[in-house]
Amino acid sequence: MKTYIPELSEQRMIKRAPNRPIDFGTDCDYIFSCLQDIERSFELQGFPGLAPEQIPARVLIRQFIVWWRTLEPANANQQTAYARLPGTIRLIDTISSWWAERA
């Protein structure tokens, strides 16, 4: 894994995300399948003992950002899973912005 120094834009995305589990609506399957793909292909356990629906959005986006900035894909399966991270991060950020506007 690479060394990671958070960028301001990443810190803002993390801060914007609710610090509680949220309903990702129709996007939950995509988001949670990305989590499963990363865990499986890199042999990681991001959130042991927690169902995906129990993970606070802030914690989830933080973990995705850290993985995006630190993981180094070594094979095709890892590259495929890794390539989904930017879109998933942006999706969570968009949903978080929507939740913030509703509050």
Question: How many strand elements?
Answer: 0
Structural class: mainly alpha
Poorly predicted residue ranges: none
Quote the average pLDDT: 94
> How many helical stretches?
5
Global Rg: 13 Å
Q: Bin the strand percentage.
A: under 5%
State the end-to-end CA separation: 37 Å
Give the overall form.
globular
SSE string:
HHHHH
Please give the share of residues in helix.
Answer: 55-70%
Description:
The protein is 62% helix and 0% strand. By secondary structure, the protein is mainly alpha-helical. The longest helix has 18 residues, at 85-102. The chain is globular and about 40 Å long.
Furnish the topology, listing elements before pairings:
Layout: H1 8-16, H2 28-42, H3 57-70, H4 76-83, H5 85-102
Helix pairs in contact: 1-3, 2-4, 3-5
How would you summarize this macromolecular structure in one to three sentences?
The chain is mainly α and 103 residues long. The protein has helices at 8-16, 28-42, 57-70, 76-83, 85-102.
Entry keywords:
single chain, 103 residues, mainly alpha, 62% helix, 0% strand, globular
